[in-house]
Fold these 3 entries.
Entry 1:
Amino acid sequence: MLKVGVLGAGHLGKIHLRLLNQSTKYNLVGFYDPSEENANKVAAEFGYKKFESIEELIAAVDVIDIVTPTLSHFKCAKQAIEAGKHVFLEKPITTTVKEAEDIIVLTQKYGVKGQVGHVERFNPAFIAVKDKIGTPMFIETHRLAEFNPRGTDVPVVLDLMIHDLDVILSVVKSPVKHVSASGVSVLSESPDIANARIEFENGCVANITASRISMKNMRKSRFFQRDAYITVDYLEKNCEVIKMKEAAEIPGDFDLIFQNAEGVKKQIYYDNPQVHQNNAILDELETFHDAIVNNTDPVVTLEDGTKALKLAYQIIEEFKK
């Protein structure tokens, strides 16, 4: 079992601590949180070992799970990597693209691995259909959340939209050609609602909307490709695959047949895969363990996290035009 320590015991940090404590692949050594009051409270309530400094925690483990505010990601990761420790970084990977690129260089220099916490890649609904997404030509996503002051120190693109950017970049195997976007600040100093249109060199277009001032929560993506229409509901953890094939000369009584203007008949049918429910956060942490032990690439690499961050900043730059 790999020894792991958690940096940051806030809302998400406590979830990571609980899951790592349950994991059969990790030995949770303890955590460090700069707030002595919060650290004492977490240690007393849950029984996790509290370390008095980052240095002490890093020295005691094989893997550092960084669940601190994004502004401190680079400093924490650099310190851990230079001590020869593997690092798991919550999304977004860092504050700047330069920091992300420097982390990649550091992991290569010190021979350690890193993974970024883009948790939707482990959502059971996305896992169920990802192999059915071939060459999507139009993608539409909506990620809407009710207002929560936590996370409003950054634009909604870095807070929410970046989840969808990572997913889209993982299925569209083509460079970004053009980005246009608009964002509006309503309650925060940074944009609370944003829409982006991303055009890829292969002709695919993605239209992405993210809001943290919605009256309801929604996390949905729709993928359109020549042979299929695929929907993923990340919130409800379900999916739907609607496909087309040549209609039989003599269709069945219950076959759904459409005829286009040219007289070509197509049969519409459902090809819905089974969704195997999981704990996405636990899965992303445990697959990182497997990547370390088996010396394979993590599911969400540091390069993936950097690409998503780079695209996020392209979108944010469009707000200023």
Entry 2:
Amino acid sequence: MAKLTGIKVIDLSLFLPGPMLSMMMADHGAEVIKVEPPTGDPARAMEPMEAGQSVWFRNLNRGKQALALDLKSDAGRAQLWELLADTDVMIEGFRPGVMKRLGFDYDTVSARYPKIVYCSISAFGQEGEMAHHPAHDLAVQALSGFLSVNDGADGTPVVPGVPSADMAAGLNGLSAVLMALIGRDKSGEGDYIDIAMFDSMLPWCAHIAGSAIAGGASPQSQSQRSLGGAAFYNVYKTADDKHVVLGAREVKFARNLLTALERLDLLPLAEAEPGAGQAPLVAFLREIFATKTRDQWIEWFADKDVAFSPVLDFREALDQDFLRERGLLIEAHGSHQIAPSFRFASETDWQADDAPVLDEPQ
């Protein structure tokens, strides 16, 4: 039996963090009813499409039921109250204050159903000076400091490739909901969870922003080991204008590579302080990697114990054999889906459900 069989979830959220949270619950057996506005979740229209649905929408909403409700109408609100009668978890992602205006804030809902676990997801939390500030992932990354180190060699920040604040909020939300369900088993009462994208993102800086956390200066990418200042934790261009990385800073890997390159004399540089101290080694490696194509380097590194990887685009990454060996990318219902990233030995192989059409019968 799936771990969350018997848990009912009402999800009023749209786009990414909330739907990600509830899909992870649906993947593991929870009954998830996605309540959408009459016009539907805007993610339904996000291209590209496959088998008649948005790839984005399907990979964040599979296994759910979908119901269109106008929560500004008496009929819509009455139907939501009916749905909540036997609900374990309620998720919402509106701007702070909206649920109270609709009559479905936590105090009102829990007064009627005290066992409910109620999770709100927003950019900056439900209270405080930033609570009503509009923001999506990019703005949260900018205000949390992360965008400052998502920069190029000239120090200019660039748009991140991963919506980390969104994803962190979804993962934090899942963890908190499951903790609250465990707590309810002990106390008999539900709880309220205030998940902020900003709050969820901030702990991720502990390994890169130590100086700032301790009250000092902000880290600068080109002088930090994890941000581009270390020769053996860096990106290098190859002869065919593609890229490879050295992805571990342990001295043993530096020794192995420099021995193979017959430049063991450079090993002390790998142990120097990042930034200016390792700059000559970075320059040497740039020259070396520019002498072969990416594929030639893949072949060259095949028998060497060095933390090396080619930089792949998503087409190349998703075509790797080991993804299918681990069952990470599957074809079902005429479409491709990314499988859950965690599975349990006690359960049978996961099977993909399709994403719901709006107003699908319950």
Entry 3:
Amino acid sequence: MQCVPKSVSLTLRGVLLAIAVSSAAATGVVAGTMGPGAAYKLVPHRAVYDMKLGDMEEQSGIAGLSGRMVYDFSGSACEGYSVNFRFVTEFQDANGGSQITDLQTTSFEEPKAASYQFLSKTFVDQELVEATRGTARAGAGAKTVELKEPSEKSLEIGREVLFPTEHLLAVLKSADEGVHFLAADIYDGAETGEKVYATTTVIGARTLSPVKAGAQGPEAPLAGLSYWPVTVAYFDPAEENASGELLPVYQLSFWLYENGISGQLKLDYGDFTIQGRMAALELYEEVECPRH
């Protein structure tokens, strides 16, 4: 029994990795004053989010949803960035049936986006239903992808296509500079490793966190920080409607804090939404890049 559209479990991986949550996904980023040649600093952390069903329409076929998302980020600009991500959800349909989906991914992005390695596994009721593994590399003319699973295959993607952390840095740079709209193509190994998503990111005004100094709870480390409300829409260029219009496959809205940590998640699939609230946050020790 398939309670949930296949795209939900597969593309959630892309969502979290794309924003490096996250946004993403996810990734802490210190967005200080940016001068020429300055870089954003990604702060390692582990964030846990409780997920629940938000708004829904009758045609969604979903009666209930609960789950937990764990996003673990480590690394540095000189060593590269590692992400371990897991999202377990239980869906209930209108007929009383249920299904547990367990999405597990790991990835490593080399410094300066030289390459991107990924492994993704999707389990449905504890049975492995899909695995994707491969490596994408940046080249002079294009980025190339070598897939190992679900089958061995080589393909090319555009030179301007961004890897997940590369995209996060672009969003933060735009936010810091007061740019409110960013369009970019993203590759994160989603689906069977052959998909490139077109995205548009809308960035709102910088706002002070509502978390007060001395507050208790998982969001306490966010006290005194600023954030930008961000919405990222994901489009599949191959899926135009009858009028030739390209509609988003899904949209992700979240608060992107100046240290890169994301809160107030909302995944919008059109006929239903999933909301995420931070349940735990642990900041890891930062690794400083050596000075030359």
